[in-house]
Amino acid sequence: MSEILPPAGTAPAEGLRERKRRETRQRIAETALRLFLAKGYEGTTLDAIAAEAGISRRTFFSYFKSKDDIILFGLDADSAMMIADLLKTSPDVPPLDAVRDVMVKRIARHTTEQMKAIDDLMLSSESLLARKQTFYARQEQALFNAMCEVWRQPERRRALRMVAMVSIGAMRVALQAWREQTGQRKSAAKFLRDAFDSLKSGL
User: Fold this and answer.
1) Is residue 149 part of a domain?
2) Minimal CA–CA distance to 50: which of 39, 37, 66?
3) For the chain, is the Cβ count within 10 Å smaller at the N or the C terminus?
4) Which residue numbers delimit the DNA-binding region (predicted)?
């Protein structure tokens, strides 16, 4: 899982307490993911995660409320870094191209094996699948907000809203096609590029 990093030059100096809390949260998340992959999502208990991370069960609940929260923490971390990249985009770049580029960049960081492992975890839990829909809605809103920061003209907001919506749709279609592929597996980034190409050619 990736660590949430603020955009360069925009965050206040991190104090010792905040740094230790961030590092502890990251350690718990990494420990949990390792156990999920080794023992399965349902086969991993909160007690096992806490023990392996070197904390008490009570301390665990001061960082995460459930196992689902740990998985979503990783998704939110990737989303935050994607938004940070988008905010650095030149307003001269077409919005759809900019969103495609940052999405492909983020997804390309993960190997096919990592992607498949996380995908299998998501599919193994009905509660995770349900919460993933909420995650997509949050990601769409975050994309829209970031684009409004880059392309500031008020008259463009309706178009930017549509770009956010179709971009999340393209990502979901791409990941579905990637999941269902047979034979020699292609990268998720390749499917995502193809989805955006299909989107642009169909407009």
Assistant:
1) yes
2) 66
3) C
4) 45-64
Is residue 32 included in any domain, yes or no? no
Average pLDDT value for residue range 56-78: 92
Burial environment of residue 127 by CB neighbours within 10 A (0 to 12, 13 to 18, 19 or more): exposed
Assess if residue 48 is contained within a domain. no
What is the tens place of the pLDDT at every residue in 120-156? 888 888 888 888 889 999 999 999 999 999 999 999 9
In this prediction the pTM is: 0.82
Q: Is residue 134 included in any domain, yes or no?
A: yes
Domain assignment of residue 101, given as a range: 67-202
Check which CATH number belongs to the domain holding 107 and give it.
1.10.357.10
Whether 160 contacts 95, CB under 8 Å: yes
Token output for 82: 């994607």
Average pLDDT score over residue span 24-33:
94
Q: How far is Cα 172 from Cα 124, in angstroms, rounded to an integer?
A: 18
Residue 160: closest CA among 134, 141, 135, 174: 141
Q: How many domains does the chain have?
A: 1
